[in-house]
Amino acid sequence: MKPLSKAAAIPVGAAFLTGVTGQDGSYLAESLLSRGWEVHGLVRHQLLPGAHGDGETAVEGVEYHVGDLSRPDEVGSILESVKPDLIFNLGGISSVYQSWQHPYDTALVSGASVVAMLETTWQLQQATGKEIRFLQASSAELFGEAESAPQNETTPIRPISPYGAAKALAHHAVSVYRGRGMFASSAILYNHESVRRPAKFVTRKITSAAAAIAAGKLDRLSLGNMNAIRDWGWAPDFVDAMDRIIHAVEPDDFVVATGVSHSVQDFVAAAFKAAGIDDWRAVVDVDESLARPTDAAEMRGDIAKISSKLGWRPSVGFDALVTAMVRHDQTILAGESAQS
Ligand code: GDP
Fold first, then answer.
1. Could you say which DSSP state residue 122 is in?
2. Contact assessment for residue 152 and residue 218, using Cβ atoms and an 8 Å cutoff
3. Catalytic site includes residue 190
């Protein structure tokens, strides 16, 4: 059999993750630990054992380090003590909506901090002579209002939100350091969801409301722009893609998406149907105050490059994703009812 040439043979070592308690960080930490990696994670505050809140998942076996992404000195000294083989930068302000409320903080923690981390990584690599691989969780928001869909790695970078602008700085910085000789890659991630998605994102907001309305525990759901079209994938699939990108033979940028898009309204219809409600229009309102100053009409990624070069394909489609999230929210509600 021909040997698999898509992945480099990297011995198991130490990985450092920012955003480690988030959706992607927690799935990635579990995956790396199960394969024998030592996993270090950056957290803003000391984690309570077993913490499992909205948007924060603690994983047993991870060594957590308290530090702030906006303080390069703190992150730098943690990196110097951990001396990782791999760095996954998944942290920062993850919500486009929040970036409109905190544009400066977004620029700092999702943009400038990445430049600082790349420089620290480069210096550390120079000092120790040991390669450190860097994976940036980049975003489809780079493309803003793209002229066509699907978008690929050559689509012009033209962000239309503070989040996209900060991610664009980080994305460019990754290619600058790659040009300098570092193994630095970007995963251009489209929206990706799971049962660990916090309710500030539209998918979880919809599935938790659909479950609650069906159970008679909530009356109505208010949403902003229901016409937005997004390419929603399954977060564990996307974590697998990031892992393949950092283990590839060469550093590079890859779009990570499903290639299939749906409107927010399609998501609503599918979620309410899964919860047993056919007439979702009777319980869903549009609230203009939830719409954003600018919002790309359609985001859909072209996965030809990652499929052909790294053999990656998504394993979970739209209907399965929506149903899994609704079922999870129904299970949580059933647990709450049993306790009360
Ligand atoms: P984002 O793509 O990272 O901003 O992920 P979101 O899940 O927050 O938003 C996805 C899309 O849903 C965007 O086009 C939003 O404008 C749209 N949307 C419509 N109503 C809402 C809402 O009530 N909350 C959020 N978060 N998004 C909404």
1. H
2. no
3. no
The pTM score is: 0.95
Q: What superfamily would CATH give domain 14-194+235-256?
A: NAD(P)-binding Rossmann-like Domain (3.40.50.720)
CA 162 – ligand 1 centroid, Å:
15
**Has residue 15 got a pLDDT over 90?**
yes
Question: Is CATH 3.50.50.60 what the domain over 202-228+261-295+316-339 is classified as, yes or no?
Answer: no
Taking only the tens place, the pLDDT of each residue in 97-143 is 999 999 999 999 999 999 999 999 999 999 999 999 999 999 999 99
Minimal-distance CA residue to ligand 1 atom 25: 202
Please give the distance, rounded to the nearest whole angstrom, from the Cα atom of residue 202 to the centre of ligand 1: 5
Residue whose entry in the numeric block shows the structure tokens 């054992």: 49
Q: From the candidates 94, 141, 177, 190, give the one annotated as an active-site residue.
A: 141
Closest CA to 92 of 189, 2, 229: 189
Reply yes or no on whether the pLDDT at 10 is more than 90: no
Angstrom CA distances, 327 to 92, 146, 195, 213, stand at: 29, 34, 9, 13
Q: Does the CB atom of residue 198 touch ligand 1 within 6 A?
A: no
pLDDT bucket at 94, cuts 50 / 70 / 90: confident
Can you give the residue ranges of every domain in the chain? Answer: 14-194+235-256, 202-228+261-295+316-339
Ligand 1 neighbourhood includes 223 CB (under 6 angstroms): yes
